[in-house]
Design brief:
Strand order of the largest sheet: 3-4-5-8-9-10-11-12
Helix content: 25-40%
Number of strands: 12
Radius of gyration: 19 Å
Structural class: alpha/beta
Distance between the termini: 32 Å
Order of helices and strands: EEEHEHEEEHEHEHEHEHHHHEHH
Number of domains: 1
Number of helices: 12
CATH architecture: Alpha-Beta Barrel
CATH class: Alpha Beta
């Protein structure tokens, strides 16, 4: 789709993507509690109208519900107004969204793809990614399947998600790993040590998930808000939302407020722009369940932090002790 926002080359794919993409995990409901499909659709349309030119989802999000919501949201859009659609396969949950299994068997992945095509209402998926390393077959087996799907024209590009540098190298020996999707944020920085440098060296585009650490880096999260989350919200069980780690993470978010004020923006946008400044990273996946949430971060698509901002953030990370991984590139 056409966009007025800055774009970056997505590895060697030939795709030019905005630094922000719409993350549709929460739109599936399930682990995030009940969701309003009409609001999710409005968020997608608003993000597109704001210039965001790609959306990321997965078959397992809401057991297909996220993909179905996207399919409906994009119905009727002209070809030049449709965002790129990225999805993932290889995880299956029971009907209650529990007991995940990582399945990479060839026939299963091929059927997953067919199901995703139907739900998304497209003939070809722009990027298909293996969600996690498989429990049932070797990496070489499921990567061969993804390469087959690309050769057959069912998907335009193929990538991996949640794979380390050793696994990336094994896949690369068979066929180019066009993209990678790791977790990355000011709190979870471990990918910066080896994975991002590997991707930069091999021309692999990187889109990270949880760049605002599931809301911890928005400046709006509080200990009281965490305590009030419903029991079926996965964050209640996450260590980053508990005890001393929660305190450190909230202190880090608080330290971002002067930088946000300096740029006339939100803490969320500062957290995203910090990710975009890291070498080897192409873009960030940002969740939204309403148009208002999109408005809270969309300016990060063009926000540039200066060297002083980056150093101030590095010092804040060190002072609070939040997270793990390198604090400077």
């Amino acid at each position: 789709m056409k966009t007025h926002l800055p774009t970056r080359a997505f590895g060697k794919t030939g795709m030019q993507i905005t630094k922000l993409g719409i993350g549709a995990w929460a739109m599936g409901g399930n682990m995030w509690g009940p969701q309003d499909d009409a609001e999710s659709t409005a968020a997608i349309r608003h993000a597109i109208d704001s210039g965001i030119n790609w959306i990321d989802t997965a078959a397992v999000y809401g057991n297909g519900h996220s993909e179905a919501v996207i399919g409906e949201a994009l119905t009727g859009l002209a070809a030049d107004a449709r965002p790129l659609v990225f999805t993932k396969g290889g995880i299956v949950r029971d009907e209650n969204g529990q007991n995940p299994r990582r399945i990479g068997e060839r026939g299963h992945l091929r059927q997953e793809l067919e199901n995703s095509l139907k739900r998304l209402k497209v003939e070809v998926i722009d990027l298909y990614q293996m969600h996690w390393p498989s429990d049932d077959v070797p990496l070489e087996d499921y990567w061969a399947t993804l390469l087959e799907l690309k050769a057959e024209g069912k998907v335009r590009h193929v990538g991996l998600s949640n794979h380390d540098e050793e696994q990336l190298a094994r896949a690369e020996a068979m066929g180019h790993v066009e993209t990678l999707q790791p977790p990355f944020s000011m709190i979870r920085r471990d990918s910066a040590a080896k994975i991002l440098p590997w991707c930069a060296e091999h021309g692999t585009g990187v889109i990270c998930y949880s760049p605002m650490q599931a809301g911890l880096l928005t400046g709006a999260m509080t200990a009281e808000r965490v305590a009030a989350m419903p029991d079926n919200d996965w964050r209640k069980q996450n260590p980053e939302f508990q005890g001393d780690r929660l305190k450190a993470n909230l202190a880090l978010a608080e330290s971002l407020k002067p930088i946000a004020a300096k740029h006339g923006t939100s803490v969320s946008s500062v957290a995203l722009a910090w990710c975009h400044a890291w070498p080897g990273l192409t873009g960030t996946i940002v969740g939204a369940r309403s148009p208002a949430q999109v408005d809270g971060w969309v300016d990060a698509a063009s926000l540039e932090l200066d060297a002083g901002d980056i150093e101030e953030i590095a010092q804040a990370i060190a002072a609070t002790g939040a997270g793990q991984g390198p604090v400077r590139a």
